[in-house]
Amino acid sequence: MKFKGKLALQQRVLPSYRVPFFDLLASHCENGMTLFAGQARSEEMIAGGSTQLAVHVEAKNIHLLNGKFYLCYQQGFIKWLEESNPDALIVEANPRYLSTPSAVKWMQKRGRKVIGWGLGSPSPTGEGLGVRARAKFINQFDAMIAYSQRGADEYAQLGFPREKIFVAHNSVSSKPENFFDRRPQTVDHVTILFVGRLQERKRIDSLIRACAEIKLNLRLIIVGDGPEKDFLQTLAKEMYPQTEFVGAKHGVELKPYFEQADLFVLPGTGGLAVQEAMSYGLPVIVAKGDGTQDDLVREKNGWQIEPENYEALVSTMKEALSDVKRLREMGKESFRIVSEEINIQKMVEVFIQALNS
Prior knowledge:
Elements: E1 7-13, H1 19-26, E2 33-38, E3 55-58, E4 60-64, E5 71-75, H2 77-84, E6 88-92, H3 100-109, E7 113-118, H4 128-138, E8 143-146, H5 149-157, E9 165-167, E10 191-195, H6 204-214, E11 219-223, H7 229-239, E12 244-247, H8 255-260, E13 263-266, H9 273-279, E14 284-287, H10 292-296, E15 302-305, H11 310-321, H12 324-340, H13 344-356
Parallel strand pairs: 1-2, 1-6, 2-3, 6-7, 7-8, 8-9, 10-11, 10-13, 11-12, 13-14, 14-15
Antiparallel strand pairs: 4-5
Helix pairs in contact: 1-13, 6-7, 6-11, 9-12
C-alpha cells in the first residue's frame, strides 16, 4: 500500500532515532516525501540525524521562553510548502509551534489535507477555557494520528470525530527478525539493565537503591551518559558497588547488554529503549508516562508502576525476580508484541492508511 502523491512532513527537530521511520515512510510515497525540521536547543542534547530517502529541508527554529512556557517559531515554513508543493501535509499537533496554523491554512486554501500527529491532549489543571482552546487547535486538522490509544481517546473527548483518528503506536525499531532464546531457565546471578540518558527524571538513583535493598546477588548494568553521571557513580559506590556504568552506547553496541540482561527497568519517565529491550525478549518494568507505555507494557510482558513511587519499584522488582521461569515467558510475549503489533513497519501502514482515507 502506497500514498499516490507527494507528502510533506513537519517536525520541530530531526532526531536520529526517527530517521529509519521517515525513510521507510518516504519509500511508501509514490512522488516522494519532503521533511521540514530545524535544530534543537543545545541544552536538549538531541542527537540529530540525516535521512536518505526523505528530502530534509532545514527550518530555522526560533526558540522562545523556556519550560512550560516554551514556544517555537519555524521560519521558512510557507516557503518550503510553496517550493515543494505537496499533496498532503503531516504536522506535529503541538500548539506551542506558532507557525503551524498558517501552514494549515495555506494547504486547506488549495484543497489539500493536513493531518496532525501527536501524543494526545491530556486535561490541564484549570477550567473550560483550556478545553475549548485545545479543541479549537485540533479541529483545524482533517485527521489525527495518535501515538497511543490513550492519546486517541483524548482527542475524541475533545470532540474530534473518532472515525478520523488513527492510532500509530509510537515506535523507533524495525520488526525483529529472530527471538533471542539463549537465557537459562534458572539463574544464580540476575542481570538488571537500564538504557537511557542519565538525568534526574529517569530516577536511576531509585534503581540503585532498590538493588541494594532487595539484597539479592544482582548485577546492575547502566548504559548511558548525562548530567547525573558523577552523582550516580558516587551513589553506586556507596550503596551498590556491583553497579556497572558502561557509558553511552548506540546501535549494535547495545546488543551484548540486551543479550546479557534478564530484566529491563526504566524507573522514571520517558525512554525509547523499552521497545528495543522487548525485541531482545526481555520483560520490562516501566514508570507510567504519556500513554505510549500502555500499549507496549501489559500484564503478560511486564509491569507499569507509578513514577516517583520508590516502594512500588522495590516491590515490583521483588515480584519479578521471584520467578525466573515466568520472566522468560514474559520475555517471549514482549518479543511477540514488537514483532506483530508495534514496530515502524506497522507505524508506516497506519500513516499511509490515514493519508489514503
